[in-house]
Specification:
single chain; alpha+beta; Alpha-Beta Plaits; SH3 type barrels; 2 domains; six-stranded antiparallel β-sheet; five-stranded antiparallel β-sheet; 17% helix; globular
């Protein structure tokens, strides 16, 4: 009797062809591969009407939770271009960062904007009040009184969230005793 070893699953970022993120998500789910496509509702206006539509928070990107066996199956999916790599290896996204994205999308109190800019590493901050309580990130830039940038390292993107400054607290680094 042969028992296959279960390999650990990790979250990876895949790059998709333009405007195919939802199709890629659907195909991956049909294959039984766990996929997370962060969507946000935005109001679009045409000449004759306004409509709420769901658009990808990170255009061109999807997250997949796969083991080594499914890793190659993802690349064989239509409209998947490649894995996002760092130093020649597919960039692994920590589970807590995926969960933070889910929490960010579940809240309705703050406006979310994505900026393609990359920023210098800054102070670590934590949200101490409101629906995003416990979310930690790097304070990359302050835009006005109620906006801060949270940097997600693996995909080299920054999330601009509108949060009152009284809801933020600096995370103090613990000193290491030798």
């Amino acid at each position: 009797m042969h028992t296959a070893k279960k390999t650990a699953k990790h979250w990876y970022v895949i790059y998709t062809r333009s405007r195919t993120e939802k199709r890629v998500q659907s195909e991956l789910e049909i294959k039984g591969i766990e996929c997370f496509l962060p969507l946000q509702k935005k109001q679009r206006q045409w000449k004759d009407r306004k409509k709420w539509i769901e658009t990808p928070l990170l255009p061109g990107y999807c997250f997949v939770n796969v083991d080594r066996i499914d890793y190659d199956r993802v690349l064989q999916t239509n409209n998947v271009v490649c894995y996002i790599t760092f130093e020649g290896k597919a960039a692994v996204v920590r589970d807590d960062q995926i969960e933070s994205l889910r929490v960010l999308l579940d809240q309705n109190d703050f406006e979310i904007d994505i900026t393609p800019e990359t920023f210098e590493l800054g102070k670590k901050v934590e949200i101490i009040q409101g629906p995003l309580i416990g979310l930690k990130g790097e304070l990359c830039e302050v835009r006005g009184k109620n906006k801060f940038l949270l940097r997600i390292e693996q995909i080299d993107k920054s999330i601009l969230a509108e949060v009152p400054c009284e809801c933020l607290s600096t995370v103090h680094e613990q000193s290491i005793l030798v």
